[in-house]
Amino acid sequence: MASQNQAEWQHSGSSRSLIQAQDMAHAEATLAGHGETGRLILDRLGRILSCGSPAERIFGANQVRLIGKRISEFIAGFGLSEHSPSFNQRYLVYLCADNAWRKFEATDSDGHRIAVELNLARVNTGGEEMFLLSVRLDDAKNSCFQASA
């Protein structure tokens, strides 16, 4: 268990600078009218290795509550398997293929449904394959959620 935690810290440290660089894109997205864009680094199993402040705000949770969790715990329909790492990796690679933003339903830390848009990119850092997940709120759909609540 200790070696797994150590490996996760190493991944987190190497990906932290990537997250910080990617958070700069948040300001550009906001100016372009897309709202806040959060960034998360996922491993090949879909576990969150690192995240930036905008992602924390979108999900209403700090890094302690996010890191180490599977992204599928927060995003419904993000079809990852607990029993097939090879399926998870293929699915994540598939979602990277066309560089498109996809609509999903997520749950914030308070259990509220939120509509999000996701974009996934494959990243190779130090020979380790990771995935950069960009997430932003789907404001139009979230206004419908709020009206029905």
Features:
5 helices; disordered N terminus; alpha+beta; 6-stranded antiparallel beta sheet; globular; 149 residues; 42% helix
Topology:
Blueprint: H1 2-31, E1 37-42, E2 48-51, H2 53-59, H3 63-66, E3 75-76, H4 85-96, E4 102-107, E5 113-125, E6 128-137, H5 139-148
Antiparallel strand pairs: 1-2, 1-6, 3-4, 4-5, 5-6
**What's the total count of β strands?**
6
The number of helices is: 5
Strand order of the largest sheet: 2-1-6-5-4-3
State the distance separating the first and last CA atoms: 42 Å
SSE-based structural type: alpha+beta
* Main sheet characteristics: 6 strands, antiparallel
- Helical percentage: 40-55%
- Global geometry: globular
Describe the structure.
By secondary structure, the protein is of the alpha+beta class. It has helices at residues 2-31, 53-59, 63-66, 85-96, 139-148, and strands spanning 37-42, 48-51, 75-76, 102-107, 113-125, 128-137. It has a 6-stranded antiparallel β-sheet with strand order 2-1-6-5-4-3. Strand 5 and strand 6 (128-137) form a beta hairpin. The radius of gyration is 15 Å and the shape is globular. The model is unreliable at 1-12 and 25-33 (pLDDT under 50).
